Amino acid sequence: MLELRQLLTELDRTVEAMKQLAEATKGVQDGQMHLVLHVKNSTGLTFLRWRERSGACRHVPWPEAQQRFAEFAPRTRDWYGLASSQAVHLNERHKELRRAIATARKVVLKGAPKVFARPVTLGGALS
């Protein structure tokens, strides 16, 4: 049970780090792309991905984002490269934690004592 709580806390911290990284990329002056936090409603999977800032606001695949970074000035290229590496790491960490949480929940449910309702006997207590 303790391990499950620790994993859930770490998942919350990871999502918070994802949000902070996305906000940091939005603060780049004249930045062409920024990270957005995407949540799949059907599964709850949360991940970062690049999005254009132009009118299209389309998602930019990771390989295309890397190609675009190569065109930036060295300092900007390095900053975006670092942000991209951190995003990939956080995405992987989120997936790892979700798998570990699923496993921990199975263990907790498997080990939970089975409790069955017993009939309530009133005896002579209520008259």
Q: Number of helix segments?
A: 3
Mean pLDDT across the residues is: 87
Total E-strand runs:
3
Count of the domains: 1
Structural class, please? alpha+beta
Characterization of the model:
This protein is α+β, with helices and mostly antiparallel strands and 127 residues long. It has one domain (2-109). Helices cover 57% and strands 13% of the residues. The protein has helices spanning 2-26, 62-70, 74-111; strands at 33-39, 46-52, 59-60. The chain has a three-stranded antiparallel β-sheet with strand order 1-2-3. A hairpin with a 6-residue loop joins strand 1 and strand 2. The radius of gyration is 23 Å and the shape is elongated.
Brief digest:
The protein has three helices and three strands. The chain is of the alpha+beta class. It has a three-stranded antiparallel β-sheet.
